[in-house]
Structure formats: C-alpha cells, structure tokens
Design goal:
Order of helices and strands: EHEHEHEHEHH
CATH architecture: 3-Layer(aba) Sandwich
CATH superfamily: HUPs
Number of strands: 5
CATH topology: Rossmann fold
Largest sheet: 5 strands, parallel
Structural class: alpha/beta
Number of helices: 6
Radius of gyration: 15 Å
Shape: globular
C-alpha cells in the first residue's frame, strides 16, 4: 500500500481534519499530514504550533506522521516517494478549487494522484476559519476541536486581542 500526503494549513486542526486523516490511514500504508507554511493565508498559529497540535491530535494513529513544509506539494511528493495527495471535499463549493489544484499538481508531476475524501456528515460544514471566528466571538468550539486545541486557540485569542 502506498504513502499519501495530506496537506493543509491546519490553523487550527479540527475534527474534520482528523476525520479525513483517520479515513486516509485506513487505506494508505502511511499518511503524512503536511502542515503547509503559507504566509499568504495569514495563519494565527506558527508552523511549529500547528505541527504540535496536529501531532497531539493524531498521536494514536501510528500510520500518520506530521511534518511542516513550505514548498510545492508535488516537490514533497517526489521527496517522500508518495503516490497520492489526500484532500477533503466538504461541499460542491470546494470542488472547483480542488479540481483545479489536482490538475495543476498532475500537470507538474504526472504520478501525483489526488484522492478525495468526504468527511463524516457532522463535519461537512466545518473549517478552521469558522472555528477561529466562533472562538473570537466567544462561541463554544468544544464540538469542533480537541480540548487542547480549544485551550491553545483561546489563549492565542487573548494574546492577540
């Protein structure tokens, strides 16, 4: 069974991300969760903080490794001899962007197959931006992220606010 990369900003990691990673780990021998270093997305957590949270969230799944990477994902596919890129599709609105990205990656590296996973129904609407906005306005994010992520996010909000 091949190795797959699961790239994302994970700012912060949510139960939706965890759900996709767990699903991928059932199919691939190894899943490498790649915390993307992309300053244009204006993450609130540093790459190191995002890696730390992802490692804690995924620590009980031996098939999953967590790393950070700042280059093109297809370059990391080559570097790690991976054969697939895992992406989550929550809704039709995700499809256009993901479709373009999959074909761009395949154009740059013909062997870069993208595999799409649909999250469990309860995570279909969930994304990191929503979680950050809820936390910023005092909403309860307990059902969206692990407790240690909630604590770190609330601490970060206090420091930034």
């Amino acid at each position: 069974m091949p190795t797959a990369l699961y790239p994302g900003t994970f700012d912060p990691i949510t139960y939706g991300h965890i759900d996709i990673a767990v699903r991928a780990a059932k199919i691939f021998r190894k899943v490498i969760a790649v915390v993307a270093v992309n300053a244009s997305k204006n993450p609130i957590f540093t790459p190191e903080e995002r890696v730390e949270m992802a490692r804690e969230a995924l620590k009980d799944i031996p098939e999953i490794e967590v790393v950070s990477y700042s280059g093109l994902i297809v370059d990391y596919v080559r570097e790690r001899s991976a054969s697939a890129i895992v992406r989550g599709l929550r809704a039709v609105s995700d499809f256009d962007y993901e479709f373009q990205m999959a074909f761009t990656n395949r154009n740059m590296l013909a062997s870069a197959e993208t595999v799409f996973f649909m999250p469990s129904a309860e995570y279909t609407y969930l994304n990191s931006t929503l979680v950050r906005q809820l936390a910023e306005h005092g909403g309860d994010i307990s059902g969206f992220v692990p407790e240690f992520v909630k604590k770190k996010l609330l601490e970060k909000m206090k420091l930034c606010g």
